Amino acid sequence: MTTSGTTQRYVDIPRAPSEERAVQERLHDFQEIAARFSEEEARRQASRCEQCGVPYCHVYCPLHNNIPDWLRLTAEGRFEEAYRLAESTNNLPEICGRICPQDRLCEAKWACTLEQAGHGTVTIGAVEQFLGDLAFEKGWARPRIPRVERQHHVGIVGAGPAGLAAAEELRARGYAVTLYDRHRLPGGLLRFGIPGFKLEKPAIARRGQLVLDAGARFIGGFALGRDATLAELASRHDAILLALGAYRANRPALPGAGEGTLIDGLTYLLASMQEPGAALPDGVDVERLDARGRRVIVIGGGDTAMDCVRTALRQGCLGVACLYRRGELDRSGSRRELNKAQAEGVQVLWQTEIESYFPNTVTMVEAAVGSCGVDEGGRLVVRRSNANGYKVEQRTIDTDMTISATGSQPELPAAYGADGLITTENGVVKVDPETGATNLPGVFAAGDLSRGPSLAVWAIRDGRAVAACIHRYLCADAVAAPRKKIVREALATLTPASAE
Ligand code: FAD
Ligand code: SF4
Fold first, then answer.
1. Is the CB of 128 within 6 Å of ligand 2?
2. Same domain, 444 and 417
3. Residue 229, Cα to own-chain centre: how many angstroms?
4. CATH number, domain with residue 114
5. How far apart are the first and last CA of the chain?
6. Which residue puts its alpha carbon closest to atom 23 of ligand 1?
């Protein structure tokens, strides 16, 4: 595509991200904090794109979205065409527009030339969200009903972004698809993990509905391992995709008496949503998980920790502190999410290790950056000895509620009735990186289950890629099956003597 007067306008038009609601207003509810672009704003911001010959935004987007092309179409007011292009590579464009950490992906310094040149990155995510939301309003987002139905049936366990993307792609190719999930509604962590102030639930509900309207069947309230083993499920389908996510919480090794009272961050977020259809873990006391009127400590410095502190603020906690054992620059989460949490009044105590933990008091040691050691990966570590200039301060704070948000891993296969499934040393399901195939014939895996806790956009990428591989696998089967049948029938007619 060549450029025209509708693009490269970054010199006259400054970067203007979507407007955020004032802190005092947004802390009173769980609604999204960012407004959607108007048509005029979307056109203006899209027109800033430089239309680079080699667009690194496209390279650094895990889905390799054709970003400059749909920005240009948006700048020209050709919104439906822009949406068609966006949806051709992304099953959940307006969701990614909302929750991708763009500052580490398509809008990073290394991805957007304008950012490097000091003009401020193009607001790619906000335009993508605008296009997807507009598509629902205008009726352009439609179920992908296949023209021809195929005979093969695929069972997908896990209706998060990986499972949903795979289901949509397989349905579009004509396969019969059944999605199973322990929650009663599809969406995975997008519906039952990420708080509404980042992603309002109707946005994921309507995407899930599109997949069902395309003809996929959804069986909620079904837990693999409890309601069927993998072998039983495999006997009902021609191929199985496992997209179960990563729900085994890492427990920090805390010296002290109160480990049993530590609250798992994901359970806390799930309970806080009160989302219909959620399958809460057995024995969860929702009342105990309400931060209203309580002093809260959150352990961890990633995006889940930020979601927990921001949820506690919205629930009306008395105060919340976030403790992170490493330095501010060492965290892997999004800088923008941290900025939002800090703007809302969250205090993060960096380089802080817990010394002892009792249900209502936490004693910790803190170190200034200059008084820390460095590990082999170059990240700050708190050293307790005073040798080599290391220095720590001890402090104790009172708490009524301590939440652990220190990451998670996939469940072990035995927990979901999949004995025989091989995992890697990191605890994720081992797959062929080219095909997503596991060691069990006809069983594939995708998303956080085979990648480890990651991002929605990577789960979508996995779901799309594995759907293409399942299609190839089943096509090969479709070709081979009649031949096998002929050979079997021919063999059956042979007498042992003539067979020799
Ligand atoms: P999931 O979304 O976890 O879906 C797995 C599904 O499998 C779930 O519905 C689950 O109920 C189901 N399941 C599990 N076990 C069983 C079983 N035995 N039987 C039946 N069903 C089962 N990513 C971003 O890009 N941006 C963000 O801002 C962001 N924020 C996050 C905030 C939090 C608090 C968390 C925890 C994650 C966040 N992520 C974010 C990460 C993102 O949500 C995940 O990477 C993504 O959802 C993984 O998709 P998935 O389909 O692999 O798994
Ligand atoms: Fe950027 Fe995510 Fe959209 Fe890719 S999917 S263009 S990384 S917001």
1. yes
2. yes
3. 26
4. 1.10.1060.10
5. 66
6. 455
